[in-house]
Design a protein that fits this description.
This protein is mostly helical. The chain is built from 13 helices and 2 strands.
Length: about 300
């Protein structure tokens, strides 16, 4: 009798194990197409990019060596583009967050669908179109901004021709386009916050600032993290708007990493060196994201 029970349990366990293995295999089989796509679109190009980074020289005259690695450490133009990129990212994203949060807090109290839709218009505009719009507005003679300055007795400015004004002018265009994205994400986060904490705070006599600081901001923290992370990634990849506005000029005052890599690879045909700079830029972005995640304290421990 005991042997029969043992055999029964052994068969039962074997069937369970076989079923679990079958389910596990099925899971891997179902994600196999995704892994193939990811391998073809991400892993394979990354391997090719890494191999290409070892070839120095112009197209058709490339040599397999370590010259690119020695060169980029002393490349003043590259490090200038790194500096410009981080100034652009940190400044634009910070101001977009302040404006987006303010709009979200304001619009969350308004149930006007038309007003909400109008605020999304800049985000839906193509970057090249945004660049053309602001290029016309910055025109030294006919731009609406200089026309306004002259109407109030101030001299016109060369917004895109002045090394001191070019980068702030580009940042303003980016803020105009993407503040609405931050507003949209934060508005969704505000709408997801339950009303009970606010009701309890009001009953306890909390002021508006105290409610905002101790209830709204802590509960909105994960949403803020997502909004700023997405915007930071978008700011690091800025290209079309800059090409339309300044093409990196005057000089290299607005030449961000993406534009510098493009010019190196396709204007000067140094594909190997451009590939190395692209890999280095990815490393910078990974470090930025990791630091950003740790600052927000959202990294899981253990």
């Amino acid at each position: 009798m005991n042997n029969a029970h043992v055999i029964t349990w052994a068969l039962f366990i074997n069937s369970k194990v076989a079923k679990m293995k079958e389910e596990k295999c099925l899971k891997y089989l179902m994600i196999l197409p995704l892994l193939v796509v990811l391998g073809g679109l991400i892993i394979y190009p990354l391997i090719k990019l890494t191999l290409l980074s070892f070839y120095s020289g112009s197209w058709g005259e490339q040599v397999f060596d370590l010259q690119n690695f020695r060169r980029f450490m002393k490349d003043a133009e590259f490090w200038n583009s790194v500096k410009v990129t981080f100034i652009f990212v940190i400044t634009s994203v910070s101001i977009e967050f302040v404006i987006g949060l303010g709009l979200a807090l304001l619009v969350s109290e308004v149930e006007n669908v038309i007003a909400r839709s109008i605020l999304l218009f800049p985000m839906m505009t193509a970057p090249i179109a945004v660049g053309l719009i602001w290029r016309l507005m910055y025109h030294p003679m006919f731009g609406i901004i200089n026309v306004f300055l002259q109407s109030v007795g101030l001299p016109p400015q060369g917004w895109l021709a002045d090394r001191q004004l070019a980068l702030p002018s580009v940042i303003i265009a980016d803020i105009w386009q993407w503040s609405s994205f931050v507003y949209l994400v934060l508005l969704a986060g505000l709408k997801s916050i339950p009303t009970s904490p606010y009701e309890a705070a009001i009953m306890d006599g909390a002021t508006g600032w105290q409610i905002f600081r101790y209830i709204t901001l802590p509960l909105l923290k994960p949403t803020i993290y997502v909004a700023l992370l997405f915007r930071s990634m978008g700011a690091f990849k800025v290209f079309g708007k800059l090409v339309t506005l300044t093409s990196g000029g005057p000089g290299q005052a607005t030449e961000v990493l993406t534009l510098h890599i493009y010019k190196t690879s396709f204007n000067f045909l140094e594909l190997g060196y451009g590939a190395l700079l692209a890999i280095v830029s990815v490393v910078f972005i990974v470090i930025y994201n990791e630091s950003y995640t740790r600052i927000f304290g959202l990294r899981r421990r253990g």
